[in-house]
Amino acid sequence: MTTHEGVVLIIGAGPNVGASVAAKFSENGYRVALAARSLTDGLSADGNLHIKADLSQPSGVPSIFQKVKKAFGIPNVVVYNGAYRLTTPPDDPFAAPVEDFHHTLKVGLDSAYIAAQESLRGFKELPASTSKAFIYTGNALNQIAIPGTLPFGVSKVAGSLFIEHAALAYGEKGYRFYYVDERLPDGRPVGFPVSAGAHADMFWTLANEPKQTPWLVTFTKEEGRKPFVGVDFDGNTRESRMRRLSQ
After folding, report:
1. Is residue 231 part of a domain?
2. Of these residues, 124, 156, 211, 226, which one is catalytic?
3. What Pfam families does the annotation carry (predicted)?
4. 174 is a domain residue
5. Which of 26, 76, 162, 224 has the fewest other C-beta atoms within 10 Å?
């Protein structure tokens, strides 16, 4: 009889990070469930569970967890990779219609928040010895404003805040929460696409940590976890921008 190490649920599973994370966990004995708008409900040829899910409809998130529980059991690792990358002209941050702005928040914040709630509910039902982690795929926008990214950035700022609250409240209870942000070696944002394999390796490391470590995880493909402040693509920080404005 085949034994399984656990169940990982990847929400917003695309061909880049989602596929790499799925492969990493599958190779290490996990059952893998993937939820995305592009998928069709059912088991894939490789035994993964596919769930069709529209993250712009937050009310549908609990049903994702119900389907995973029915097919594989309660997920002990949940990766939230959903995002709607709405941008604006760099010199006009209020250009996006409010309806589009709300759409971004539904995908990047509302559905993520409900996913965190559902994850916690499941974590509490699992044995104390089982590793439990909720991982939010972030970027540098929670630390610095980059022109043209206001709608997308608001969800990252808010997402990092609820991750911080969750880590403080639940980390000591064995329910770990992380916001993960890949950078270049000099601290600048890695941009898009990110390094899928490096994300998979980092997520695997975080899923297996014995206790909550700092919730904000900045890392590079070359060196792994490394602390960085907010830096834009030109190497500016909030402090350097403020100094220029005050001159």
Report:
1. yes
2. 156
3. adh_short_C2
4. yes
5. 224
Residue 205 lies in a domain: yes
Q: Which amino acid is at 20?
A: S
DSSP assignment letter at 169 = H
Query: What is the radius of gyration, based on Cα positions, of the chain?
Result: 18
Pairing type for strands 49-52 and 216-220 reads unpaired
Please report, as a single letter, which amino acid is at residue 11.
I
Residue of 197, 246, 191 lying closest to 224 (CA atoms): 197
Active-site residue, 156 included: yes
Tokens of 134: 């909720």
Q: Specify the amino acid at residue 109.
A: L
CATH number of the domain encompassing residue 123: 3.40.50.720
Domain carrying residue 107? 6-246
232 domain-assigned: yes
Q: Identify any residues that bridge with 225 across adjacent strands, giving them in sequence order.
A: 219
Write out the chain's pLDDT in tens, 247 residues.
Answer: 344 689 999 999 888 899 999 999 999 999 999 999 999 999 998 899 999 999 999 999 999 999 999 999 999 999 999 999 999 999 999 999 999 999 999 999 999 999 999 999 999 999 999 999 999 999 999 999 999 999 999 999 999 999 999 999 999 999 999 999 999 999 999 988 889 999 999 999 999 999 999 999 999 999 999 999 999 999 998 888 888 888 7
CA-based torsion, 69, 180, 162, 177: positive or negative: positive
d(CA 54, CA 67) in angstroms, rounded, equals 15
